[in-house]
Amino acid sequence: MRIARLISIAGVDKRWIGAALACVAAVSLGGCAVNPATGDVDLILLSAEDERRLGAQEHPKISRQFGGAYDLKRLTDYVTGVGRKLAAHAEYPADRFRFTVLDTPIVNAFALPGGYIYVTRGLVALAGNEAELAGVLAHEIGHVTARHSAQRYSRQMLTGLGAGVLGAVTRSRAARDLANLGGTLYLRGYSRDQEFQADTLGIRYLTRAGYDPGAMASFLAKMGANARFQAKLRGGADNTAAYNLLATHPRTIDRVRQARSAAQVKAVGRARLGRRDFLTAIDGVVHGSSRRQGFIRGRRFVHPMIGVEFTVPTGYRLTNLPDRVVAAHRQGPTVIFDQARRDGLDLMGYVMRSWAPRLKLRQRERITVNGLPAVTASGRTRIKGQVRDLRLLAIGDGGDGVFRFAMIAAPTGAARWNRDMRAIAHSFRRLSVAEAKSMTARRLKIIPVGRRDTVDALAGRMAVDDHKRGWFELLNGLDLPGADPPKAGDLVKIVR
Question: pTM of the full predicted structure?
Answer without folding.
Answer: 0.82
